Protein 1
Amino acid sequence: MSSTNKSIQEKTAELNKLVEWFDSEDFKLEQALDNYKQAEKLASEIEKDLLSLKNEIQIVKQKFDSES
């Protein structure tokens, strides 16, 4: 499953696992850059998803307010 098809909750869980890895005994400096880049990409995707969701909510709210 590509990360673009994952829910915000799934992406957040994946990001949390990556962040936890940095404090774990499995931490390896050689892997750190790759995991950091992956975490950065996930964080960016989550931010975009949340912004999109916020925009949708505002549109629905505007429609609801105009119908009242």
Note: The helical segments are 8-22, 29-67.
Protein 2
Amino acid sequence: MGPTKVAIGTIAAIFFVRQFRDKNLTGSFMFDDKVVLITGGTGSFGRKFTQTLLNRYKPKKLIVFSRDELKQFEMQQHFDSREMRYFIGDVRDKERVMQACEGVDYVIHAAALKQVPAAEYNPTECIRTNINGAENVIRAAISKGVQKVIALSTDKAACPVNLYGATKLASDKLFVAANNMAASKTEFSVVRYGNVVGSRGSVVPFFKKALEEKHESLPITDPEMTRFWITLQQGVEFVVKNFSRMKGGEIFIPKIPSIRLVDLVEAIAPGMPTHVIGIRPGEKLHETMCPQDDSHLTLEFRDHYVITPTIKLFRKVSFETNNLGEQGKAVERGFSYNSGNNPDVLSIDQIRNLHEQANI
């Protein structure tokens, strides 16, 4: 086996090979006979999560909560098993969220306004969905006795320079602090990761569309720009596993590779000319997932990092050992995990190989 396949296999193994062993480690099939709700469930993550859950577990119900009836109709054509439920609703509507959480065991909060330029031009709308919506999910989960909640975050929430990142940082803080709600037995954690390969609105579909339209060159923002890179399936696997790991209050961050933007272009369109358009408002040259200022709170595990709460929780929690028995250790003071200093950088061939595995 060549070095490219070995490297990609190593990346994938973290998320895929141990899936059945994880079930044994938890002592049960975590989602079997459980009611699971996913907000924003018609998005890329929601569809892949639904596919994974139905293939691997036997949930009592899987509730897809979103505001787009057309996307729900289209999703229902693919996922129409007896476990599926489709709720039209918006996370801004606290009463509807409360209804959706009735009898629910686990919640994945994936609903968000995610487009950086749209958030800059429509700040109040972004705040209402990403911050007020997060609060509604928290209150509903506590009120209805949900066992566990995982909220999806983004690398843009670390040291944010745009409104989208700022709202997601606020959301992260809300979910961590929710573990201190009086008399609440619900556990809340956050999963933070980087760019998802080929997801809706990402750069890969944009480049491919430009190629289909016979553009003479592809636009890049900066030749030095880097990004974290993760497949949709890897993101789903990481979230699923953290339901077993979590104690409540953690921000989970996977160890994933980085790519250089110029290498991505070469992988997609070998020899294609590029032109530099400059960094757009709200963009960074490199994305951060573990900020330097949080180094005193950060633990390193074999295949992920955990940022522990900045506040003291009412209940005594030790995060050095998670619920799967995995051991973590404190990172050095001043440690930062960003796409520019990440030692794991994909080559052009590795990017190509990963995209083939992800069917992009």
Note: The chain has twelve helices and 17 strands.
Protein 3
Amino acid sequence: MILVNTEKIPGREYEVLSLVKGGTVQAKHFGRDFMAGMKNLVGGEITGYTEMLSEAREIAINRMITDAQNMGADAIVCVRFASSQIMDGAAEIVAYGTAVKFK
């Protein structure tokens, strides 16, 4: 599956199929949360959270791709990400874009 964050894929003509999306909600882990608290004292990157959000983006991307494959898409254009805090300690990550079929 070709994923681009632009409206066009150079050299390709396609028809628009539909909006596709994938998402996940990830919650903090006690160990990660403890280490994050320690980082607040000394500063620096909170790698546990960085890894958690990276994993969440991959899950969201894979779910978006599955959504596109189910409608016979060849690519997804205008790929975007959104995130929001669902509750204290949990974040939602959504990947979305436009599924297209090559002519």
Note: The two ends are 15 Å apart (CA to CA).
Protein 4
Amino acid sequence: MRLPVIIVNFKAYGEATGGNAVRLAQLCDAVAREHDVSIAVAPQYHDIAPVKDAVSLQVFAQHIDPVAKAGAFTGHAVAENLKEAGIVGTLINHSEKKMAEADIKKCIGIAKSVGIVSVCCAATPEETGSIAELAPDFIAIEPTELIGSGVSVSKAKPEVVTQSVDIVSARNSKVTVLCGAGITNGADISEALRLGTRGVLVASGVVKSPDPGKVLAEFANALKLG
């Protein structure tokens, strides 16, 4: 995945479900092409295939379960099946889908075994350190209290970002740190990059915006300048 990157998590918002998911992904694709920046999207499971068919962006799952192989696992999100649907990576341990450390470790291993990228979320610098030792591809530092707040961690708690970058570098220098929580404008992204991260994980700042195209273009410009 080309860095720096913007990963847009569609969550389960109505603005990013079904036909809306495809339209939002196409908008992300258009901005990525126009500005020559790296943007990936994480739609809901049922929208992965139609989104993948509609765009050239990299598509992520929002979660996988610690299930190593396809089989009799009703209701589970199985990495092997999701890769067949078109994903290149997955979020793991998002604050809205927290996992035990043993399951995080297993999911990172499953992601490696099926050849997809793992983006693990962490709420604190201490948690980034623990997860870094499990060797995911990326860790996104996202203080829970700032998610969806419209107040970015890069501005409200910059020390959380710098501490996370330093801890991850010390524990496993091969892991790339992203910044999430409250990202709403280009200045938030510029600050996140200045603090040492290599991209952002965003959701409501794009999905719930009255003009997501304008927001994405501002994000893209900040990413290029960063």
Note: The radius of gyration is 16 Å.
